[in-house]
Amino acid sequence: MEVARKDAGGRAVIADLRFDLAAGEIVALVGPSGCGKTTLLRIVGGLDTRFQGRVTWSGGAAPRIGTVFQEPRLLPWRTVRQNIALVHPPDPAAAEALLDTLGLAPHGDLYPPALSLGMARRAAIARAFAMQPGLLLLDEPFVSLDPAMAEQGRQVLAAAWSARRCAALLVTHDLAEAASLADRILLLSAGPAQVIQDVVVPDGRRRKGIAEGARVAADLLAALSPLRDGARGA
Amino acid sequence: MGRHLLARVLPVLALAVSWEAAARLAGSRLFPPASAVAAALVQDARHGPLLHNLAATLGRVAAAFALAMLLGSVLGVLMGRMPRLDRALDSLLTGLLNLPALVGIVLIYVWFGLSEWTAITAVALNKLPTTAVTVREGARALDGGLAEMAQSFHMTRAATLRHVVLPQLYPYLFGAARSGLALIWKIVLVAELLGRSDGVGFQIQVLFQLFDVTGILAYTLAFIIVVQGIEWGVLQPLERRANRWR
Questions:
Q1: Do A75 and B244 touch (CB under 8 A)?
Q2: For FRET with A6, which of A42, A66, A146, B41 sits at 20 to 30 Å CA-CA?
Q3: Higher pLDDT, A226 or B64
């Protein structure tokens, strides 16, 4: 993935940014808000094609990409089940299993306006997994949830991911969240966005919950203190 | 449910009773009582041309309504989504919107002759611009986020239209349908009065020349019953279905 330059509103939002992502790996993009993280996801997802640079895939063709938008973007006039069934290609058995994993099975026939934000977010995650993606894009999937709901969301996300193992790009401004979900963390600078640090979460400390994530994040920041001014993430 | 029905029926009953009483007091041929109008309605329905005329008018209403809704909606969506087309056609649309119904009908009759289709076209032309304007608002307000969602989940064009776009347009389409039906009922009668030899509009003119107020009121009553039937039997159930999720 290589973005030479992406302009918006007359200024560069992303400049000379490059990174790669292995199959089955979760990479978190962490940076201050407004640094172009969402734009980056839109470029990877093919929703934004007006940029200089390229996104290349090792198999040649792009994998199936499942997206979890920052707003859940469920169709309010379709039930949770119908929303999940609308992805292409549909797979009803997988959809039911996902509803189960994400704790949505009893709410599958509700319309989204009847869901709490936490449930709507989980439904959006279920929908993204339902298309059996090779790559999952997650844009601040737990922002503006209370800590308990967010942690529950992270745990069901990790469970769904372990059962399906796809590559994932997670955008967040919360370093502890990144450290509790990802294999690798890319710290981005404020606009124009660039990768200022690429750190690997130690093998034994991955996906051990938010408390461990916060400790990993603290260790990381201590090690990186000279760079902290550039990436005030957590 | 029973209470709701009662609340709807009671004012109608009250109106009928006071009409009956007032007409009996007045005792004028030009202000017949409700019972006489109802009797005339039944009589004309069984032995007269009422059902034929009503059917003729209904057919024209249906054709003009379908034509205006279809073309108006397509035009509205296109104008709502394409700013250049919108700018090009906007003043034309405003002009058509403000063209008096009578002028449109007369001109179409003069230019294209008196026929079933010119009558239907003339009526549809009166409704088309209001549909286009209403639906255009809906098309402008379409949610870009949901469109992106549909794109990123590889929904087909047909699925996107059915599950993403149309549900967002339903409130506008229902609004256009309801106000459109009301408008078309009225304008069809004018078109019939000017250029058809059957239909409610034609018959009203005949009854007017005879000063047959009972007949006019009987036709009016038949007409109101049909319109209410469509509102309760078709529009409201459809709307409830579309709004289930709210």
A1: no
A2: A66
A3: B64
